[in-house]
TrEMBL record:
Pfam families: ACT, Homoserine_dh, NAD_binding_3. The keyword Membrane does not apply. It comes from the Bacteria. InterPro entries: ACT-like_dom_sf, ACT_dom, Asp/hSer_DH_NAD-bd, HDH, HDH_cat, HDH_CS, NAD(P)-bd_dom_sf. This is Homoserine dehydrogenase.
């Protein structure tokens, strides 16, 4: 075997400690697969004295993570600090400027600055790897970049946030409302104390932006992702979806065509016949549709120390083998700058939930708004009165332009009959 690949590691949280544990446990096997040993030589974190369950005394301790880029024995820097800017971005830039390859699990940084970093890595013939940034231990980036490289990918979509999927599938199983399940998820460690990035869809949007770039050869365009989270999904929506033969899932969906790059994170009704309807708990799952390979499903643990560390070390094995390649499956300068696609003319069926005052003429008002906007109603269901006197109305539309549904809801938005905001969910075609 040749000389070891030596690693400087920034961030010793759950994943950073997991990387060290994995290298300790599987070091011999990893060395055989990589063709040489992989070893950590330096680390940096906020608190040197914290007990992380791993021995860090054997590594050089560096107070300033940016200094890892200049560590004399390090060949590669691994960043597990997080954040789109700040210390993480400074470390990424410094590492590539110092002529060292860079591995990260930082989806926010890659979504916002991936193109810049890819250009810097390619110009210096260095590796930039970010498998762990999307879907934890699920090798979806590698699958798209390498396994499906011969295909035109028509669409990529999936369950990209484990926190939201845990909440929705638990609501589904237990019939309880969002707020209760969120509190439980926080107590169990599935949700952060401030869960906004997860439940408002931002985390999933970061991952979708990365997937879209790799799948379609498009420049990253996180700012063009339309985002709606799950905080307004009610137990009644879950029950209604079930009665109709669907499950509610937060999906990231992207496709590319003559009208531009379409990217959206939004709650969907997923038919029971579709594999994503049966993905429960904190699991992630991604579907890619290739013109020759057909439908591919990547599924597994989307977070946690073991799965994410596994993806980080898989990237390190590639680097140890000398397998660099362009980060986005093609050179950064070949990535197309695509306009954001207008969703208005996309044709689909929709689920709309309205909470309305229980009085004569409300259903006629709703039907008239739908009719005037050109929305064809497949079914309209009114449920019994809530304690506050309001009633729940669920509408499923026939396939039609999304713009028509938006116009109908805009007509209704100022109505005195509505109690609260409407909930609109797209229905995924099987």
């Amino acid at each position: 075997m040749t000389e070891p690949l030596r690693i400087a590691l920034a961030g010793l949280g759950t994943v950073g400690a997991g990387v060290i544990r994995l290298l300790d446990a599987n070091g011999e096997l990893i060395a055989r697969r990589a063709g040489r040993p992989i070893e950590v030589v330096a680390v940096s974190a906020r608190d040197r004295s914290k007990d992380r369950g791993v021995d860090i005394a054997r590594f050089d301790w560096i107070d300033d993570p940016a200094e890892l880029a200049r560590h004399p024995r390090a060949d590669v820097v691994v960043e597990l600090v997080g954040g789109s800017d700040g210390p993480a971005l400074a470390l990424a830039r410094a590492t590539l400027a110092a002529g060292k390859s860079f591995v990260t699990a930082n989806k926010a940084m890659i979504a916002h600055h991936g193109l810049e970093l890819a250009r810097a890595a390619e110009s210096a013939n260095l590796a930039l790897k970010f498998e762990a940034a999307v879907a934890g231990g699920v090798p979806v980036i590698k699958g798209l970049r390498e396994g499906a490289a011969a295909n035109v990918i028509g669409r990529v979509y999936g369950i990209l946030n484990g926190t939201c999927n845990f909440i929705l599938s638990k609501m589904e199983a237990e019939g309880r409302d969002f707020g209760e399940i969120l509190s439980e998820a926080q107590a169990l460690g599935y949700a952060e104390a401030d869960p906004s990035f997860d439940i408002d869809g931002v985390d999933a949007a970061h991952k979708l932006s990365i997937l879209a770039s790799v799948a379609f050869g498009a420049q990253p365009a996180f700012g063009d992702v339309a985002i709606t989270g799950v905080r307004h999904v009610m137990a009644a929506d879950i029950a209604e979806a079930d009665a109709l033969g669907y499950r509610v899932r937060l999906l990231g969906v992207a496709d590319s065509g003559p009208h531009g790059l379409f990217q959206r994170v939004h709650p969907h009704l997923v038919p029971l016949s579709h594999p994503l309807a049966h993905v429960v708990g904190s699991t992630n799952a991604v579907v890619a549709e290739g013109n020759f390979v057909g439908r591919l499903l990547f599924q597994g643990a989307g977070a946690g120390d073991g799965p994410t560390a596994s993806a980080v070390v898989a990237d390190l094995i590639d680097i140890a083998r000398g397998e660099f390649g362009p980060p986005y499956a093609m050179p950064a300068d070949a990535l197309a700058a695509q306009d954001a696609a207008d969703s208005g003319e996309r044709r689909a069926r929709a689920y709309v939930r309205l909470t309305v005052a229980d009085r004569v003429g409300v259903l006629a008002e709703i039907a008239a708004a739908m009719r005037d906007a050109g929305v064809s109603i497949e079914s309209l269901i009114q449920r019994g009165a809530n304690p506050d006197g309001s009633v729940f109305v669920a509408i499923v539309t026939h396939e039609g332009p999304e713009r028509s549904v938006a116009q109908a809801l805009e007509k209704l938005r100022g109505s005195q009959s509505l109690v609260g905001e409407p909930m609109w969910m797209h229905i995924l075609a099987d």
